[in-house]
Automatic annotation (TrEMBL):
Protein encoded by which gene: era
Name by which UniProt lists this protein: GTPase Era
The Era-type G domain, residue ranges: 4-170
InterPro entries: G_ERA_dom, GTP-bd, GTPase_Era-like, KH_dom-like_a/b, KH_dom_type_2, KH_sf_prok-type, P-loop_NTPase, Small_GTP-bd
Keyword terms: Cell membrane, Cytoplasm, GTP-binding, Membrane, Nucleotide-binding, Ribosome biogenesis, RNA-binding, rRNA-binding
Function of the protein: An essential GTPase that binds both GDP and GTP, with rapid nucleotide exchange. Plays a role in 16S rRNA processing and 30S ribosomal subunit biogenesis and possibly also in cell cycle regulation and energy metabolism.
GO molecular function: GTP binding; GTPase activity; ribosomal small subunit binding; small ribosomal subunit rRNA binding
Region of interest (G2), ranges: 38-42
């Protein structure tokens, strides 16, 4: 059998489960997830090698109308992902709405084959509800395939992969077969810290946070890694919220992030977190790109 590979862009509104799906397909945490919208800030590639096939999944930030500098760069990143793709998976979790128009326009404009993926079927009562969603989307576009799934329960993922094989192209693989992502180790670490922050903070705090690695030192002999990370927020009040009473919240975020990083890198991790205020950083393009977003 000849080797095949291809780029599949995952597109959809915020919070429909794109990152959960990519992690379920790859079988490892590539993209952070959270119940808060706009968790994903930049393009993340997840690589799945199965037999002769290599699927390169491009996770994109949920498309939305941008309100600030960071939002604009997230939106551009989602649009750029379409230009490189061989096919698009449009992930949805409810019937077609007016707010889906922005995505519809872009997929039509791309002229790429589109697979409609109806996620979260575990939350639907019966098949009639799935049919209602399908019918609403069939009215607006001619999809190549429609696959109902649950990324959380890993339902129908095999069927989804079988569907996607059709869009891979014969030729050498894009990445070495032991790669699961093209993210750097630094980026995976800071994203895990950001994920924990998203779980433990509310309202405007999650979206005002950036995480940067100050340093990380690997000790081969002891199989340990010392990581110093900086959490940047926009206001003094947010710094207080993050640190919490007697520093308890920051400690909990640090402990859980350390465990997650430990799972990926399989070594003892020492993690120190620091919080710094940088007023209005999301509207400063230089800072947005310095913090690794919008590239
Ligand atoms: N019940 C159920 N919940 C799901 C499923 N897939 C994802 N979720 C939940 O939906 C929420 C959003 O998931 P994410 O994977 O972060 O969504 P996303 O589309 O990547 O979100 P953005 O990064 O904001 O664009 C999380 O709370 C997930 O646990 C599913 O199949 N079933």
């Amino acid at each position: 059998m000849a080797s095949k590979s291809g780029f599949i862009a995952i597109i959809g509104k915020p919070n429909v489960g794109k990152s959960t799906l990519i992690n379920a397909l790859i079988g490892e945490k590539i993209a952070i997830t959270s119940p808060k919208v706009q968790t994903t800030r930049f393009r993340i590639t997840g690589i799945l090698n199965e037999g002769e096939n290599q699927f390169v999944f491009i996770d994109t930030p949920g498309m939305h109308k941008p309100y600030h500098g960071l939002g604009k760069s997230m939106d551009k990143s989602a649009t750029d992902a379409l230009m490189d793709a061989d096919a698009i998976m449009w992930v949805v979790d409810q019937t077609y709405r007016r707010t889906d128009e922005i995505i519809l326009e872009r997929i039509k404009h791309s002229h790429l084959p589109v697979i409609l993926v109806i996620n979260k079927i575990d939350t639907l009562e019966n098949k009639a509800e799935i049919d209602k969603i399908i019918i609403s989307f069939l009215k607006v576009h001619e999809f190549k395939h429609i696959v109902p799934i649950s990324a959380k329960d890993q339902t129908h993922l095999t069927q989804l992969k079988e569907t996607l094989v059709e869009y891979l192209v014969e030729g050498p693989h894009y990445y070495p077969d032991d790669y699961v992502t093209d993210q750097t180790d630094e980026s995976r670490m800071t994203e895990i810290i950001r994920e924990r922050i998203l779980y433990y903070t509310e309202q405007e705090v999650p979206h005002s946070v950036a995480v940067m690695l100050e340093s990380f030192k690997f000790n081969e002999e002891l199989n340990t890694m010392d990581i110093d990370a900086l959490i940047i927020v926009e206001r003094d009040s947010q710094k207080g919220i993050l640190i919490g009473k007697n520093g308890e919240k920051l400690k909990r975020i640090g402990t859980e992030a350390r465990k997650e990083i430990n799972k990926i890198f399989d070594m003892k991790i020492h993690l120190s977190l620091w919080v710094k205020v940088k007023k209005d950083w999301r509207n400063d393009p230089t800072t947005v790109s310095r913090y690794g977003y919008g590239k």
